[in-house]
Structures
1.
Amino acid sequence: MDLLQDIITRAKANKQRIVLPEGTEERTLRAADRLLADGVASIILIGNKTEISQLAASYGLTNIDLATIVDPLNHEKKAAYADLLFQLRQKKGMTPEKAAVLVENPLYLGCLMIKAGDADGEIAGAQNTTGDVLRPALQIVKTAPGISCVSGAFLMFLKDKSYGDNGLLVFADCAVMPNPTAAELAQIAVSTAQTTRDIVGADPKVAMLSFSTKGSASHEMVDKVVEATRLAKEMAPDLKIDGELQADAAIVDVVAAQKAPGSEIAGKANVLVFPTLEVGNIAYKLVQRLAGAQAVGPILQGIAAPVNDLSRGCSVDDIYKMVAIAANQAIGLKASAK
């Protein structure tokens, strides 16, 4: 788990402005208090200032005064954000009247702050569904250049350090795209490689997984993975990627030598890209439960700025970690844009 400490340390060294739209939710407030005390990020809480102050006092929190608090009903940039929303969405039927209402929704407000350059990332979902978190993100922040689909990666911390990067593997997509096309699968691979660089600080070695290794089976599902691998190489010529590979060929040297001799990825992969959401979701949960791995995520990727979704059953520690992760994503995205 030293990597998580590295992620937190990098966030502290280059503080990002992370907005928490659920600013009156107890776990969010407790995480914000810890984040502010530790100097991990500059925290923006959305909510009524008096209510937040009263809640913080009742929970015994002493650092919330260090946060920037934005009241969604009454703040100096409300009209400017409403106009920004109207300009962004008028071709989709947005009116000034609708924008004036939506700008008071904390999830829309958080994304408008990011779009306007007043925040670097957002964490939400302790109280809201994934759909509610993603909708304004896709409408306002939108996807990154060259990417049309959003996906979700998990950091899988394994007890057996012989796999991946000292026991760390990155799994995707485990959260968003049910049955990606070859082009979308290629985007997921490139996005996950970017996540691995930005958050893990590792050189991504991407395995495109299938039930076939290098033509051992013939099927249209195998063809999709082969085509996705080709497209990913076109999108990112310097990316270390190979496919199609079975899971054992991707992460076990001995198997790789037999099934995929000469591959620079087989047996050494630290990024596993699954052909469908059901495979990725099942795989991460099985590894988590049967291998005792710690799963951190989902980390949403493919958005032009970090907007990460929490489980409604999340803990204070989960929110703390996701803010640090979002900060690293923001740092990486800014570096890539230069």
Note: The first strand starts at residue 17 and ends at 20.
2.
Amino acid sequence: MDTIQAVVSVGEITSAVSTTVSIILWALALTFLAANLFWAAEMLTLPTRSSTDSIGRYGPDDIQVRVLTIGATDVVQKSVQAMPEELVDRHVIAEKPMDIDGATVHIVPDSFECEATRKGRALEWARRNVPCEKEYVLYIDEDSIISEVPEIPDADVIQFSERPTRTGSLFTYLAELFRMGFQLEQRSFSKMSIPLYAWGGGLAIRKDLEDRVTWNYETIIEDTIFIWAAAQLEDIDFRTVSTKFHNQAPPTITEMIKQRRRWIGGAVNDLDVLPRRYQALFMIRNFAWSLSPLVLILVVVPAVTNGPLINQHYLTVSLILTAFLYSWSILGLLYTGESVSTSISLLLLTPFVSLLHSAGALIGFVSPAQEFNTTKKIGSSDNSPGVSEKKVDETAD
């Protein structure tokens, strides 16, 4: 009798564990599905080209370019030299003395104080102290390469498209291509009352809007916080344009993880800036992003478990989630027009690339970054084509 009871007890425990695991897996699968369906809905409602790139544009004469850096002379010089000659109003905002041919350099004084810190502090100092009579201020990162004259639609905030370039690690470059596929959702932000995020490597802002909103916020995601604040201050017109600015992929996996941690950590820290409905949306999206590598585990589970809730419906949901992962890889490859060899590499490595892309997000979600971290960039010691000698500069990304 005791033996029978022991067997029954073990069976009950096993059944309870199996049911609990099934419930957890279903909860994760449905969370992922909700976040991915929101992304799909964004993609299905993308503005047409005619509504994104409106008529009535502004040209180079209406733009002042500002390059933000700590003191990466080689990197900044390369970016300035690559600017189309029509962009004549060029300024470098730095925290260390540097000589740049083709641009006016401004050094943020140590004595300057405001609520913002690090990059936000530099942006706020420039807003107050760098004269600008142009309609727009175009902010780019120190490694941003403007390959063509940017045309600006008649809007308040204009987000230029991003095109990563490989520096060191192949895996970080593949992760950036993967991110490009997901980031196509930005084109739908013009239909939202509050755009979800901004990329500071190519962001043009009306000067009078910048002066009303300011950069004077304590945050480590200053570009995104600016558009969140602007959208709640007034009804802004946010547009994306197809012109691509080239930016370096993180040179190492470690640098990429730190970068992603800052992105998601900053969003977690500053969610109270948003209305509650947006806070809930961000929590679901951030949670799904940080745990996205588990999607493949959700697919494998039905093959190794007989949980009471693991059925055909669960399998269907898990396969849909896997399809989303690969769709971001495919869209990223189409967006960048990558080579056949790189495309094959990304498609074969998508599960691993997704893991790398999400590692920093997971760390940032569990332990949000509290300080601004610089992302190292590769700077050529010679700006001529074909140079092989390189060095790493500390930059403010």
Note: Confidence is low (pLDDT under 50) at residues 380-397.
3.
Amino acid sequence: MEENQNFSKDNNTETIQTENTQAEAKADKHLITLHLSHKNGSKTLHLKKGHLIAASVAALLVLGGGAYAGVSYLQTQNRLTNSQQQLAEMEKENRKLTQRTEILENENEEYTQHINEIQMKTEELENKMTELENTKQSLAEEINNMSGTSTDSTATASAENGDTACAEANLSTACLSILENGSTSQSGEKTFTTIVTTSYNKATSLSAQLDKMNVMLDLTGASFVDVATNVTETLAQYSNVPMGYPLEEYVMSTEFNPDGDPTISDGRVHKGVDLSTRSQIVPISATAAGTVVEATYHDDYGYYVKIDHGNGFTTLYAHNSENLVEVGDTVKKGDVIAMTGSTGMSTGVHCHYEIQLNGIYQNPKDYE
């Protein structure tokens, strides 16, 4: 019995050792062992080295991939930004080129139009010069015929009137000489157009002549303007239509406001204009020819002059320091009729100027 009990104890001991050995072997296979407790019991988790290595490799791959993706994204973003900047610069240059192209096209059209105009003017000049050349040829032929007739009848003409025949011959010779000096050729060819061979040469060769003609026309036009101005001024002196203002230098202090518009000047009713001379006493001139119908003093106007210009026009000049004309005087445009002042209802030296047409007040600005 004792031997059996001892044998059983030995077997149990070996079994326990074997289990411990197996547990130690299993423990050696696991790097980390986690024991989790819960209400229904406990659970053990074992992490092997391979699992940890695999997790580490996976983490490295994820981190490396994320870093590579981030770097690639930044590089792509930079390239995209650079491409957008280059595209914007290219669009800007393209706009500049487009604008320059439009400018060049416009200049080309203007140049072409200018060349066409010069060609037309050149052709007109050529035609006129051709007509002049043909006229010279016709005159030369007639003079030659006259000269030949005079030569054939020289003997008879000399017997009757030698001086007359000689004068006719001399006249023919002189005329031919003038024509020869004035013309480069006696033939009907247009030798004066030899330099006009192409459109460019035509424009170049005649542009200077056209410029000279323009200068001559400008001088003639200026002379005509002077003459027209003198005529206009002479007629204006006797014109019965008011024109301009009665002062040479002035500042318009109050404008025409017959309806009392509050947005005009000081907003009060004003049936003329006030021309301030800044405290200077200066001459007042008639703005048209006419007859003085009033030259007196008024409580509101002070010293004033009224002129009847006929055709329904009258003008009035008020607040004068003195009147220089009398009722019945005839005046021309520009004649001095009074001196500026501040008489009557006035707050400063000025000229109150009115125009009426058939009794209706007119804005003097409409007659500048």
Note: The CA atoms of residues 122 and 351 lie 59 Å apart.
